[in-house]
Amino acid sequence: MTYSFEKPPVEAEVMDMDDQESNRSFENRLSSYVRSCWDEAKVAKAVITERLLKCERQRRGEYDPERLADINRVGGSDIFMMLTDVKCRAAESWIRDVMLNQQDRVFDLKVSSYPTMPPEMRSNIVDLIKTEAEDFIAQGGELHPETFRARMEEVHEITTQKMKDEAEDAARRMGSKIEDQLEAGAFNTELKKFITDYTTFPTAVVKGPIIKRAKNMAWGPDFTPIVVTSYQERFERVSPYDIFPAPASTGVNDAYLIHRHRLSLRAIETMRGTPGVNEDELATVISRFGISGYRTWIQGDNERRVLAGKPFRYPLMSGEIETVEFWGSVPGTLLLEWGIEDEVDPDDIYEINAWWTDGCLWKCVLNPDPLGDRPYHIASWEDIPDSFWGFALGEIMRDTQIMCNAAARSIANNMSIASGPQVEIAIDRLPDGEQITEIYPWKIWQTTSDRTGGGQPAVRFFQPNMNAGELMQVFSTFAKQADEVTGIPNYVYGSSNVSGAGRTASGLSMLMDNASKGIKQAIANIDTIVSGIVQKLYLHNMMFDQDPYIKGDFKVVAKGAMGLLHKETLQMRRNEFLMATNNPVDSQITGVEGRAYLLREAARGLQMDTSKIVPDQNSIEQSQINAKAQQLAQQMHAQMMEQMQSQAPQAAMQQPAPMGPPPEAQPPDGAMMQPQQMADGGMMDQPQTDMGNSVQPVPGMQMGEDSMAEQVLRSLAANNAI
Questions:
Q1: Are 415 and 468 in contact (CB under 8 A)?
Q2: Are 540 and 158 in contact (CB under 8 A)?
Q3: Is there a domain that residue 162 lies in?
Q4: Cα(260)–Cα(38) distance, integer angstroms
Q5: Tens-place pLDDT, residues 243-282
Q6: Gap between the Cα atoms of 248 and 245, Å rounded
Q7: Residue 358: domain span
Q8: Cβ neighbourhood burial of 657 (10 Å; 0-12, 13-18, 19+)
């Protein structure tokens, strides 16, 4: 078996550590700074961790420990109505249907600014027009100044349009490239996990694109297996429990940011030889924790595992090594002392990415992003200004969830109490040994007489009141209130409990459209995630991809909130427009090019290969030119046949006409020659006066648009203008 290793990408080529051992005291300064930030972030995260646990308990149908203790102290039912989980699952399904369950991509690239024509290209166009004019004049023609100006504008417009078309083609190629990168990096898989966090926790986090080294299987000659080690762009959903921002952070790019990892020994081993790794420190980490593993326990770790359905504690020999990934700014002096020397100024501040395990700082690189941004993206169901953490969907409806739970417990307790009669017994009138805790059919109660003489029975039965109806109304009221506070009504996820307008198809469609306005904001928040990731891939490709045909000045447009929610409606309206414009009058207005554009967009909306259905613009133009040429040839042939028929009676009586017209038959200025049958079967020109008022391009300057553009581009390429 053959092994192949790919060179690390350019943006990951940050200076490696020197092989010689660094001064341990200097190295500990950077390590101690990372440790101090980690300790500070853990303390500040304690309150947020409790919020995360409350949100997950509410989603999983578990009471908070304090409330469960109160319920157990009072006694009765501890039922938990999964109303929050229903809303969260409905929101997840809605968002996934918009963002994932479709063939069209959720982003688009638009040309931000079209390329301007450089001075060299303008001068080349002028030279070409001058050459055409000189050739025409040399052939004896007369050139009107207005014709020269019109020809200049025509060629300039054609060349500008070609440049715009090429920029749009480059944007489409860049979009396809990014789409392939997202698919190869498992973006959709991680986005599904991100959407679950998005509907459950105050803030959801996704990381990417990040460069990871991975092994893939390839096949050589005779199907020989080859293990290829390559670098790939990957994406990763980050648990909100494992992200630790600085206490005053409002986003991912201010102050410092810490990501807590639990790496297997194999994952750490794959990082050997990557840029920025100190091999000695990494070997120390592997030798210390390679077998036993290493991890610390902080607030919420145990309960987090229980809610996830995992064992209460990790086995002692789990083998996982807890590692802290640090993103933040440090002075250049710390980097110089640690070992990074090239291009580091001790007086400057640098954004770094460091990996730290129990005092061992075994990797440190400069942030490869040209703007210093970190590869993390966050979104919240409801944002809180100037805060890293927002409001979760469960937090918004927590009060209604509490009231529904209380009503459900009351219903359960009332039903159990009112399910049978209650018994009142005079204990002093029962004989010794009588079992008063058992009741069954045909039971005989032994009692003594009433000593008071009142004749009261020793055993008396009564039926408690059943209040389930009133309690159900309370439950329904707060369940309906949950629809209002979340913006996710029950008819969205198929509930049959719909009244009013929702009982008709058109009314339900109207209600669904109104409900979609609430989900649009949630999807718009995710659009910021998609835009940020696509923007990073775009910058990556612009800087490091070798293909010049995908590059240009583009801007990212996310289509989740607006474009995809009404995709089916837009397709329906497009088909209606096609049918409405399918008449001779509209066809004259739109022309063949406009009709081809409409057909192309309709086919693209149906996920068809438009290149196999509608020809491109150049093919349509060439077909039009051929059709006009064929029509002109047919007209000329018809005129020739008509002239031959009219001259046939005279041919027998007269001699053949001389070859060519007499001098007095020359056409006047501005007249065109009409083909005429000659005696030898050839054609001769006959004057034809132009009755139009518009300026016609001279015959020597008539060129097809494609040929002119090709001449311009060839001329520019020869002069290195493009």
A1: yes
A2: no
A3: no
A4: 10
A5: 999 999 999 998 999 999 999 888 888 888 888 888 888 9
A6: 8
A7: 2-60+202-391
A8: middle
